[in-house]
Amino acid sequence: MGDGILESIRYLLITTKYNLFSFTYYRAQFVLWLVSSLFISLYPFIAVTVIYSVSTGIQGWNYYQLLFLSSTASAAIGIITMFISISEINYMLIHGRYDAKLLRPYNKLAIISGGTGFVPNISNIMASGLLIIYSLANLNVTAIYILEYVVLSAFGIAALALFLLMLTSFSYRYFRGYSFIGNFTGFIRSVSNYPLTVYGTTGVILFTVLLPIGTAYFYPAEAVLGNVSSFGFALYIIGTVLVGSVSYKLFNMLIKGYTGSGSAMR
Q1: What is the pLDDT of residues 35-93, one digit of tens each?
Q2: Whole-angstrom Cα distance, residue 211 to residue 164?
């Protein structure tokens, strides 16, 4: 079983690497895209700067803390979409594009997600990474907090990615349309612009338990600020593993409803 999982991860990485090489083949186009995308990806910096230039900002968060949070959210979304595109997966499921691919000797999750990522998002990840480093340079952060941040980010991004894949298979099984997934993707981007605390207690519970958006950006950022205890750290790891495991099992159950090319939307 372990070997199968490792082979599937290797398959996902290889397909992403192939897409990246294909994108960078035309070097002039790649450089122009990279430069333009880097400027576009500076949105967190512009948005946070505007917020703090016209107001006192968000209570409990100073300029660099909010910039760090916003950049973390942007990087998390960039990493997920670089490897998987839920909109592309939804489209290919609806139009029966996986018939031949499902014969490959990998698990269904790796086959369905492999090769769908939008690799140009590497520019978004780079820009967000620079903003994260800039924010950290202006915050009093210890090495242990940074290590906790990296660990929590890895678990949180993986949990959210598995949840999104499960949601894609759910959308295919019960809606067979495009609007649900597209709207939910935009919803995630909107929610992750701010700390979960601005949505109140109900929002914190909703975006932690039912829609685990906060797992990929809010709690890792909280760790850097020293707001996550040892118990909270352990609870977070257990929670993200649980979310990922349940999402994976539900994905496999729901994807059994895939009926091939005959399932194309009429």
Answers
A1: 666 666 677 778 888 888 888 888 889 999 999 999 999 899 888 888 788 887 887 77
A2: 10
Torsion sign over Cα 180, 19, 160, 219:
negative
What's the DSSP call for residue 196? G
* Separation of alpha carbons 205 and 138, rounded Å: 30
Classify residue 17 as exposed, middle or buried by CB count within 10 Å of its CB (0-12, 13-18, 19+): exposed
Q: How many residues belong to the chain?
A: 266
According to DSSP, residue 141 is labeled -
Q: Does pLDDT of 179 surpass 70? A: yes
The structure's pTM equals 0.81
Q: Write down the domain spans for the chain.
A: 2-263
Give the Cα separation of 79 and 245 in Å (integer). 20
Q: Containing H/E element for 172?
A: helix 143-174
